[in-house]
Amino acid sequence: MSKLRVRFAPSPTGYLHVGGARTALFNYLYARKSGGVFVLRIEDTDKERSTDENTKQILDSMRWLGLDWDEGPHLQSEGLDRHRGAALRLLDEGKAYRCFCPPELIERKRQLASDHGDGWKYDRTCLSISPERSLEMAAAGVPFCVRFLVPDGETTFQDMVHGRTTLKHDEMEDFVLLRSDGSPTYHLSVVCDDVQMGITHVVRGDDHISNTPKQILLYKALGAEPPIFAHLPLILGPDKKRLSKRHGATAVMAYEQQGILASAMVNFLGLLGWNPKGDREIMTLAEMVEAFDFSGVGSSAAVFDTEKLLWMSGKHMERTPAAELLPLIEEQLGARGLWTPQDRDPARLARVQAMIDLSKVRQRTLPDLARDVARYLSDDVEIEEDARRKHLAGDDLAARLLALRDALAGCADWAPAELETAVRGAAEKLGVSAAKLIHPARVAVLGVAVSPGIFEVLAAIGRESTMKRVEALVAATARA
To answer: Is 238 or 73 the better-scoring residue by pLDDT?
Structure first.
């Protein structure tokens, strides 16, 4: 058996949306699991709507997701002459014919049928024109398109997701291969390119399933073996309607801009319609490759749940080493004047990574993480009103803050265990619960009511910054 070859073939008429990204991912998983080849083809034949910017965005999106391709990107527009040649060959072989019907006439017939509540397909008016007369009319400059002559019978194919699928040919019209301006249609171009690139399996969305019988007929008419097909289920919004902009962002890069981790996005897309064996939900791309099998891909529509994506991003953030997260938030920290990529002093770098490790377990997006880490780095503490109301009250506040300051100042070893011993000892001497010092300490250094373990926080922030922040709160309380 020849090596498996799959392709992802987006159109650069817009950004890569989540449905397209899911298709790209499933092609990637199948190719990598099977030791096959993943081909990238840009279907740019719609010159009016295709742009270089969209092509770049598609490639950037795939790189962000980590979906590296083996061949390409090939441009479909480079094969136009080959596509036209295939149509002319079918014309010569009697498998296609010229249609001289004006588009307005066809539209009129279609509308008339619609007005009567009927469907309409092309009535083969021009099939009765002899080949000789057809050539004469074409030579005389009469506009024409080229239509494929659909044979009698039916087409059956075995879909890897939907199983045995059949379409009777009398439900299919003689579809256009070449438009009147000589440009190839989607059906012709995609089949010609799949044949030329040796594609063995076509993995794409459910919205293409009605195209498949037409394309199988074209493969056979061109003397090629049709590939094996797999049509992925639709992606719906939470309201169970087809995913669209009304449900929020649909462009993949919008999620990068929102600060979703790429690993989480890939993980989330992979589970839209695919159920790996077992109860695993959090998976790396490599783990997904290892587990992937089309037996786990269902035919029912999948629901895009943004809250689930955010949860998954948080889980991936928790698993990601601080050294990998820091480059992702450096720009945001730099905008606050708190960090630059040039800040490579080993001690400072270790402290910042410790801050990230403390913060990442509570965050779901990179902006959230950057905001939280900024609290650790900045000595300019902004106290949240809720934290002030809860923990900076009572007639003994000034005394408690002084006890806290003195206890911290007396710590010889700035480590969590010694810091905890010192603070709890000071509280005991003062005759109050440890919480009466711990909560004000948290507000003093971070300005919030809730954080990771306060002694780990103090250790990460460091002696100098901690004392500066506590002294600032002591002074502010004395002035109040």
So the answer is: 73
Separation between Cα atoms, residue 262 and residue 64, nearest integer Å: 6
Contact 222, 192 (CB under 8 A): yes
Is the pLDDT at 1 greater than 50? The verdict is no
Number of CB atoms found within 10 A of residue 302's CB: 20
45, 12 in Cβ contact below 8 A? no
Contacts of 44 (CB under 8 A, 6+ apart): 11, 12, 50, 55, 75, 76, 77
Q: Return the pLDDT at 140.
A: 97
- Check pLDDT > 70 for residue 49: yes
Concatenated DSSP letters for 17-80? BHHHHHHHHHHHHHHHHHT-EEEEEE----TTT--HHHHHHHHHHHHHHT---SEEEEEGGGGH
For residues 13-33, give the mean pLDDT. 96
On whether the CB atoms of residues 307 and 349 are closer than 8 A, the answer is no
Here the tokens at position 9 are: 């073939």
Question: Closest Cα to residue 44, out of 87, 77, 15?
Answer: 77
Whether pLDDT at 185 is above 50: yes
Confidence of residue 242 (pLDDT cuts 50, 70, 90): confident
Both tokens assigned to 380 = 């300019």
DSSP letters, 167-188, are EEGGGS---EEE-TTSPBPHHH
Residue 280: left if φ>0, alpha if ψ -120 to 50, beta else—which one? beta
- Is the pLDDT at 306 greater than 70, yes or no? yes
Measured from the Cβ of residue 475, the count of other Cβ atoms closer than 10 Å reads 11
One DSSP character per residue, 337-379 reads: TS--TT---HHHHHHHHHHHHHHGGG-SSHHHHHHHHHHHH-S
Segment 287-306 mean pLDDT:
95
| Nearest Cα residue to 369 out of 217, 471, 258, 267 | 258
Decide if 390 is catalytic: no
Q: Residue 365 and residue 310: Cα distance in Å, rounded? A: 7
Number of Cβ within a 10 Å radius of residue 150: 21
Q: Give mean pLDDT, residues 251-280.
A: 94
Mean residue pLDDT of the chain comes to 94
With the CA atoms of 471, 477, 478 and 480 taken in that order, what torsion angle do they form, in degrees rounded to the nearest 10? 150
Question: Of 47, 240, 245, 277, which is the active-site residue?
Answer: 245
Cα separations in angstroms, 185 against 75, 87, 145, 192, 275: 15, 10, 10, 11, 36
Residue 50 has pLDDT above 70, yes or no: yes
